[in-house]
Amino acid sequence: MASVLILMGSQSDWPVMQAAARMLEDLNVSWEARVVSAHRTPDLLATTMQEAEQSDVRVVIAGAGGAAHLPGMLAAFTYLPVFGVPVPSKQLKGLDSLLSIVQMPKGVAVGTLAVGEAGAANAGLLAAQVIATTDPEVRKQVQAFRDEQRNKVITQSKLDLD
């Protein structure tokens, strides 16, 4: 398995979650994506976490919409850090997903990111930052990304806005 495992409750979550994969690719962090449903395949969820713990996985990113139980259920089965990405739903635009993921009971930690693609991209960045604490090559990539972000702002600040 890769360093980061991206899980989602259904294939329809991929348009949002691929932003995490793109960020990880940009930072040269290996990743793997799978569909695992907290409600429809709970046995697969438990097995997936056992496999992740026995492999090179360092961080799990979980995208979920609606009831959004996937990140919390994953966290219940592992010591690995789990970052939850609320996937927008048709009915409540992701507010339901956000509240489901962020309201974890004390003792079961899930880092919750923003709703949608920005949250997925930041989950990828945050996963890379965790890996960068022990991997000098990833640290260089994260630092280069930060420098690029800084330079974009400086370049934009010099525009003639009249």
TrEMBL record:
Positions of substrate binding: 10, 13, 40
Pathway involvement of the protein, from the record: Purine metabolism; IMP biosynthesis via de novo pathway; 5-amino-1-(5-phospho-D-ribosyl)imidazole-4-carboxylate from 5-amino-1-(5-phospho-D-ribosyl)imidazole (N5-CAIR route): step 2/2
Catalytic activity: 5-carboxyamino-1-(5-phospho-D-ribosyl)imidazole + H(+) = 5-amino-1-(5-phospho-D-ribosyl)imidazole-4-carboxylate
InterPro entries in UniProt: PurE_ClassI (IPR033747), PurE_dom (IPR000031), PurE_prokaryotes (IPR024694)
Top-level taxon of origin: Bacteria
UniProt record, GO biological process: 'de novo' IMP biosynthetic process
Statement: the UniProt record of this protein carries the keyword Protein transport: no
NCBIfam families with a match to the protein in the record: purE
Function: Catalyzes the conversion of N5-carboxyaminoimidazole ribonucleotide (N5-CAIR) to 4-carboxy-5-aminoimidazole ribonucleotide (CAIR).
Protein's name in the database: N5-carboxyaminoimidazole ribonucleotide mutase
Organism: Aliidiomarina halalkaliphila
Gene: purE
